[in-house]
Write a structure and sequence with these properties.
By secondary structure, the chain is an alpha+beta fold. The protein has a single domain, classed as Ubiquitin-like (UB roll) (Roll), CATH 3.10.20.30. It is 19% helix and 22% strand. The chain has 3 helices and 5 strands. It has helices at residues 24-30, 57-61, 66-73; strands at residues 2-7, 13-18, 50-53, 82-84, 97-100. A 5-stranded mixed sheet has the order 2-1-5-3-4. Strand 1 and strand 2 form a beta hairpin. It starts with a strand and ends in a 6-residue tail after the last strand. The model has no long low-confidence stretch (mean pLDDT 96). It binds FE2/S2 (inorganic) cluster. FE2/S2 (inorganic) cluster (FES) binds at residues 25, 38-40, 42, 44-49, 84, 86. FE2/S2 (inorganic) cluster is lined by residues 25, 38-40, 42, 44-49, 84, 86.
């Protein structure tokens, strides 16, 4: 399992054990992370799985592709480190990764 820490805007953190090879969104939903609604189930049409990926992990996993980036632009609080968690496949290299959940999804 891969440890991932989700942090809300107040700084409250919740660590989960994510399964490698599964999307970060699926693991977040399985652990009841508040603010990760994922209304479209991972079809990249809702952006309710939006997260901010902390460095150095953001640089390691890379920025969103063009379609994902377009979806992120429609969120209320996009940042340079925004990603859609449904588009991130968990790998062992992400162990200890920290991500933030946007205010607009709380
Ligand atoms: S779950 Fe809808 S865009 Fe990620």
């Amino acid at each position: 399992m891969v440890r991932i820490v989700f942090r809300d805007v107040a700084g409250n953190a919740q660590e989960i054990n994510a399964e490698p090879g599964v999307s970060l969104m699926v693991s977040a939903k399985a652990h009841g992370i508040a603010g990760i609604e994922a209304e479209c189930g991972g079809s990249m049409v809702c952006a309710t799985c939006h997260i901010y990926v902390d460095e150095p992990w953001f640089s390691a996993i890379g920025a969103a592709g063009p379609i994902e980036a377009e979806m992120v632009e429609y969120t209320r609080h996009p940042r340079l480190t925004s990603r859609l968690s449904c588009q991130i496949l968990v790998t062992e290299a992400m162990d200890g990764m920290e991500v933030g959940v946007p205010l607009s999804q709380r």
